[in-house]
Amino acid sequence: MNELSLVNEDALERFYNLFFRNRLAHAYLFVGADGCGKMETALAVAKMVNCQGKISKNSPYCDICSSCLQANNKSHPDICLIDTAEDTIKIEQVKDFIRDFRLKSFMGKIKVCIIRSAEKLTLEASNSLLKTLEEPTDNTLIILTSVSNEKMLSTIVSRCHQMNFPLLSTRKLNATLTEMFKMKAEEAQYLSMVSEGSLGKAKDLKEKNYFEEKNYYIDEFILSFDYDKALKVILSDKIKTRELLNVLHSWVRDAMLLRSSVEDSRLVNIDRIAELKRFIGNASLAEINELYAQVIKTIGLYNENLNIKVPLMMIKELIDR
Ligand SMILES: [Zn+2]
Q1: Within-domain flag for 256
Q2: Are strands 27-31 and 140-146 parallel, antiparallel or unpaired?
């Protein structure tokens, strides 16, 4: 998987402009949900400020000089990365990096340190990093990434320039899933719509075979005749109930859109369009709206931990009508 293809182009262009006007600050904090390209952008910035080739706004790194190649291989002597699967980033890790950071850069350009998930920094680690942030050395750049700045030491946050990363648009996420994961168009469309712009969430759902699973709910519940049996299985399990409600919601929403003749690209369950059309049959928009309202009401009751057996029965009656 090519990580750099998720680079946030707008953010990179801002860095390019700052870099060329010699206005780069010493420390930045990238904030945004998982999977929105913070890390990929940080690596692209590191590559840009160290590139030895000819660069421009449209191609901010050359990707062929030795510096770019080392950055791509994660073996660049001036780009250091703290990226751990552990729950915390400990003081030892930060101290090692600071020691290294104070040395002159190997290749004569800018030393970049990227700390992923900076909310994982322990209090001690944060305090030791603070000194480096307060007394920056020349030609150094620190980039912290985090899903939220609220869990971070406020003194760290206040010493960094914060950049917020928006989630991806459904279209970009869809393209990414098709391109990077070689996903079928229908699956990519489904996952991009239910992941609300988060590649991280889409990857997670892919690993859980969520696409196949939602079709199980459609077949066993929405289109099935043996409703009571299906309901028994589903209601005995909280996760299954939640998933069923999500699938129901997307299905009835699709039915409404289809009845209103919107374009297919806005449908979540595009892979089941034939069944969706059969499902709608001759139902009017008002009838589908009534069903939709009942689904929303049921989800509301479920969120309040109330029993939804009867509301689900009513949904089934509306479906069978
Ligand atoms: Zn280069």
Answers
A1: yes
A2: parallel
Q: How far is the C-alpha of 69 from the C-alpha of 63, rounded, in Å? A: 6
CB 51 within 8 A of CB 62: yes
Domain count, the chain: 2
What is the mean predicted confidence (pLDDT) over 258-279? 90
CA of 205 to the centre of ligand 1 (A): 36
Total number of residues shown for the chain: 321
The reported pTM is: 0.68
Q: Is residue 201 within 8 Å of residue 195, measured between CB atoms? A: yes
Determine the distance separating the centroid of ligand 1 and the alpha carbon of 59, expressed in angstroms: 10
Read off φ and ψ for residue 76, nearest 5 degrees.
Answer: -80, 125
**Contacts (Cβ under 8 Å, ≥6 apart) of 238:** none
134 alpha carbon to ligand 1 midpoint, in Å? 30
Between residues 297 and 231, the one the model is more confident about: 297
Residues, CB-to-ion distance under 5 Å, ligand 1:
51, 53, 61-62, 65, 68
Distance (Å, rounded) from C-alpha 269 to C-alpha 248? 11
Whether 178 is covered by a domain: the verdict is no
Token pair of 223, please? Answer: 């289109």
pLDDT of 3 strictly over 50: no
My answer on whether 23 and 123 are in the same domain is yes
Beta carbons within 10 angstroms of residue 77's beta carbon: 14
Print the domain residue range for 86: 3-164
Q: Give the CA diameter of the chain.
A: 75
Q: Compute the distance between CA of residue 181 and CA of residue 189 in angstroms, rounded to an integer.
A: 13
Q: Which amino acid, residue 56?
A: S
